[in-house]
Amino acid sequence: MIPKFDQVNNDISLYLILFERQAQVADVPKEFWASHLLGLLPYEIAQLVAREDVWISRYFEKVKSLLLKRYKLTAEKLRQLFSKHCKSPTATWKDFSYEVRNYFHGWISGLDISTFDQLKELIIVDQIKRRSFPEVREHYIDEWSQLNNLEKLTSKLDDYDAVRTKRDFHNSTPRKGAENRAYTTLNQKR
Question: Tens digit of pLDDT for each residue in 93-112?
Fold first, then answer.
């Protein structure tokens, strides 16, 4: 029917949609959906549901709501899934397009993108971020995923480059004075 949920590589909302479709196709009565779903979840996620009231674990909609609240993906994670998602050998191209469309929609709706101009800016920002150096990403790690405005991003990148250029300039200029003479004298003795 449907493989076990992999919380590292799968989106819970997409997984639940696929589960519902498979359950409908297999004509599984809705009152058994929750128990079937719990059997497909990793142990630690099933424990999360088990800690709730007993009546919650009997109703698929309640379990679904609980899982969506707990494992909702961030806009950044959805962007990564959209960008790097590959078609499974067992999936159809229709399934693949549905998954990619959901990742894209989740990404842009998570950032409140509602106009074409906002979408253009987001795509340009994404391209610039991809081409930036890893040390720049590390420097702005706390705010990197929230930098979705083109002007703010380019300003930060220019500031970083300006500071790095100054630092590199200071490190590469030869020192004059006693330190240089001492180094030269020491090397001549060897």
Answer: 888 888 889 889 888 988 88
